[in-house]
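Issue 218. Parser rejects a valid record. Input:
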Amino acid sequence: MKKNVLTLAYIAFGINALATGYDDGFSAISKDSSIIKSWATGIEIHRGLVDIADPTAMDNDTNAASFGHASNALGNASGNSTDVVSLGDAGWATLTFSKPIVNGNGPDFAVFENGFEWEGATFGELAFVEVSSDGINFTRFPSHSLIQDTLQLGGFEGFDPKEVNNLAGKDIAGYGTPFDLEELKNSPNLDVNNIRFVKLIDVIGTIDSQYASLDTAGNIINNPYSTPYASSGFDLDGIGVINQKEEPNEIINLADVALGENGVFNGTSEDGDSSFESGLLSFNYSNTGFWNGFAASNHQDDTTAGWANDKSAITASGIDSIGDTYGICNGSDKTAFFTNGGAHKVNGMYVTNSTYATRSMQQGDSFAKKFGGESGNDKDYFLLKIWGTQLNGEATEDTVNFYLADFRFDDNSEDYIVTNWRYVDLTSLGAVTELNFALSSSDNGDWGMNTPAYFAFDNINVTKDFSPTSNLSIPDVTASQEAIDTVIDLTGWYSDADNDDDLIEYSIKSSDSSLFSAEITNNELSITFNDSLSGTADLIVEIKSNGQTILDTISIEVSNGNSLEEIVANAKLYPNPAIDNFLIEGIQNGVAVDVIIYSSNGQVVLTQNNYLNNTRMDVSSLAPGIYQVKIGSSTQKLIIK
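Output the parser choked on:
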């Protein structure tokens, strides 16, 4: 917390909590508080046991916590006891956000659990809170517990929330425990103004030293224990963001793709090439007897093995909710590209295995081996590589590797096949116009990879790239024929909010005029005037930044020093009456004027800009009649036969 607002901030947040009927003695934040700007958009979860001291304990046919879907932790906190996801003993969840959390005034985010008040105490299950800028280096908030640790709190006993600091879950449902990044501002490997990951780790409530969780001072944290049920451990309801970086981010989750009756969209035709768009990205699809490329799906089959179930994620849902749309990629080298031609920073995305690939690796099939082999010792792997294409058409220097399965460990117990949504950090790629995906496996044959070349994806987090914007429009130019060259320094006229202004490029888009010549060198616009002509013409300047282009039109007027009345004082129409064309004579040589022809009812029927003396005008398209011809500031009658 910023020191200069410490007192005021606590008063403000205390009032906020009291106003909604609950006070933990500190600063719990209501889920409906107006200070919450956004909520978590992605989650990776690893469930712990229902009872860490007894791995044989089961509930719902599993020894791991199983209550709630991971998506219950995304979006607004519900404030009830059921719309949560339980972590289990020592289980953990890492959440991501559409915009980074920053160290602002007061608390920066709040974590919501489903605790409740009971017999004058609070029943809640606690969790450590860690944050990270890169998804690799996590820093834990220093936590403190003054709860006595000589007598175990039972599974349904409460505690005094005033005896707990910097542990999530000490507040009742609907009220979040706040966390302030100011406490971590001097932590190594952490940018407190770019927090993109928040990790919650269940506090094991036992006071048994073999399993107990300790606070920063080394004290045992006594919490309700044991709770050997599907809802064991910390019950996460959501994370509300209070201070965030205002980046123009977009989450591409394929929710905008219209699925067919079969719950799939992978092309507009049965054969040939096609594509579909979601947000800023376009995904290609091809069908030449067997489809490959990208598909959008909401299939929920996490059981059936074989290629007939090739459009299901092993998670049986997208990351946001059951029945949610997600993407399936089929093929070892596929590309998704941005539709607006610009380069964008892709912050990251969630991936997991398809059911088809998962069951093949777990069991083997007629084409592919069982990973690990019969002995379990085979050093198998299934690798997803992701890289980008830069604006210059070259591949990014960095490639991100993510193992969808890895059996290369010396200890077979560490072997794994990914069966939940995992976040892949892609910030190292920088700004890209395309995302490229390639799959490889340890299991290969004469015809290539045997492992089914599929993976699922969801919630691609993209920072939009905007066009440059005008600080002030480039000024119009008025000069005489005798004027010396005009030079305009374009630096600073335009800026780009999400790119370096020094990289903005200026060029001449259109300069089709005999009145002047123009060029741009080193951001300087030079205009040279024709000393024998006068008139008005447009110069169009192209402003380009990171592939995004806008145009600015400069009006250039060149005069010969005389007034317009003097220039056209002797102008005459010839011939008059006219049949198909006529000309105007008597205009001062070298001076261009605008000529407008009006019908008898005052409507404009023909216009010619920059008309020069004795130049014929075609009027063959006009019906016979009487017309008025405006020559600069003079008007004369024209008869057309």
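Fixed in the parser; the record now loads. DSSP finds three helices and 49 strands in the chain.
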